[in-house]
Write a structure and sequence with these properties.
It is a single chain. By secondary structure, the protein is of the alpha/beta class. The protein has a single domain (3-138), classed as Rossmann fold (3-Layer(aba) Sandwich). It is built from 5 helices and 5 strands; from the N terminus they run βααβαβαββα. The mean pLDDT is 97. Bound molecules: ligand CA2. Residues 11-12, 14-15, 17-19, 23, 74, 76-77, 79, 100-102, 104, 111 line the site of ligand CA2.
Length: 140
């Protein structure tokens, strides 16, 4: 069975608490539940990790080396700033899908550039929780 590491970046643990107009009313626990259910139905094993800290995300990506078959990552705000996360993904070399709940191309100008897209095999945005399900399909 393929093992996929799902990483969620800063503030995503606040889902459903604030900004429901952008990110929806469902909570982070609902997101975890939806990813777990989709993974079971597709015959994939997933580990889901969330951190508000750039270095912790880099550590987690490095730990995936030799332990996972792929990475799904929503780096949240680090999408637009983090060369460190880009470099970690490149160093580990696992197939990676980038996911964003919102459509980063139709928001503020600064959200249009993604360091992570320079490495990710695919970027899915603007599809809410469904984006993670679609990302899982990439590994089938
Ligand atoms: O659309 C996405 O998934 C983002 O990665 C979410 C990030 C944002 O910085 C990216 O540009 C796009 C922000 C996540 C913050 O999540 C919150 C959830 C509830 C309340 C406030 C923030």
């Amino acid at each position: 069975m393929k093992k996929i590491l799902v990483i969620n970046g800063p503030n995503l643990n606040f889902l459903g608490i604030r900004e429901p107009d952008i990110y929806g009313k469902s909570t982070y626990a609902d997101l975890v539940d939806s990813i777990n259910k989709a993974a079971v139905s597709k015959g994939l094993e997933v580990e889901i990790y969330q951190s508000n800290h750039e270095g912790c995300i880099v550590d987690k990506i490095q730990e995936a080396y030799n332990h996972f078959d792929g990475i799904i990552i929503n780096p949240a705000a680090y999408t637009h700033t983090s060369v460190a996360i880009l470099d970690a993904l490149k160093a580990v070399g696992l197939p990676t899908v980038e996911v964003h709940l919102s459509d980063i191309n139709s928001r503020e100008e600064f959200r249009k550039f993604s360091y992570i897209s320079l490495y990710a095999a695919k970027t899915i945005c603007g599809k809410g929780f469904e984006g993670y399900t679609e990302a899982l399909d990439f590994f089938l």
